[in-house]
């Protein structure tokens, strides 16, 4: 190729007027220039690119909406829970014992045992139940063999002992685990609500539940059922006596 000559097939640029500042328009191409690079994209390629862009934008929108909903759910106040009334035991008579049936009145939930040095608290629990039951108060006894293996009997034996020796009339649950990861859900909830320091450490630990199912207080084993702090706490939750 001689100096100044153009390759075969190459056309000289067509210049517009100098005053317009136009750039050269290449009408042809020379060796080494791909025809694909010079040709415009086909309609199908453009449509595929547009679809991919739309899908990407839609995915970003979905993620943004989901994040906004998560923030709203976290910021919103928790719905009122049923508290203790959400739980149920199996009764010692094998019938369901839902705590919701005692809603509207205070409730003392006590893990019990028949062969414990504190078993005599059954007597005070029954007296408390008899004193306030007409005003909506109840006691729920929950036999447990967790502490010292002091409740080894069957359901029939436990029920016979409680009613025969102490005249127990308040509801009794079937034997339950009341501590640790295998505890009944009520006891796991109570421990989480009031903290491990207020969880049962021995037989005859007492949880006081309010009329609305809220967990009010916990009383350890050595606080007798008729102790002033328990009686006063119960009376504060009772409706006024008729005629008073």
Strands, helices and their partners?
Layout: H1 35-38, H2 43-75, E1 88-90, E2 96-98, E3 107-112, H3 121-132, E4 138-143, H4 155-166, H5 185-194, E5 206-209, E6 215-219, H6 228-237
Parallel strand pairs: 3-4
Antiparallel strand pairs: 1-2, 3-5, 5-6
Name some characteristics of this structure:
alpha+beta, 2 domains, elongated, two-stranded antiparallel sheet, 11% strand, single chain, 6 strands, Glutaredoxin, 244 residues
Describe the fold and architecture:
This protein has 244 residues and is α+β, with helices and mostly antiparallel strands. The chain folds into 2 domains: 35-75; 86-237, 3-Layer(aba) Sandwich (Glutaredoxin), CATH 3.40.30. 33% of the residues lie in helices and 11% in strands. The strands form 2 sheets. It has a 4-stranded mixed beta sheet with strand order 4-3-5-6, with helices on both faces. The chain has a two-stranded antiparallel sheet with strand order 1-2. It is elongated and about 95 Å long.
Percent range for β-strand residues:
5-15%
The domain count comes to 2
What integer value in Å does the Rg equal?
40 Å
- Please outline the major beta sheet: 4 strands, mixed
Question: Strands across the major sheet, in which order?
Answer: 4-3-5-6
What would you call the shape? elongated
- For this structure, the CATH topology of the largest domain is Glutaredoxin
Mean pLDDT across the residues is 82
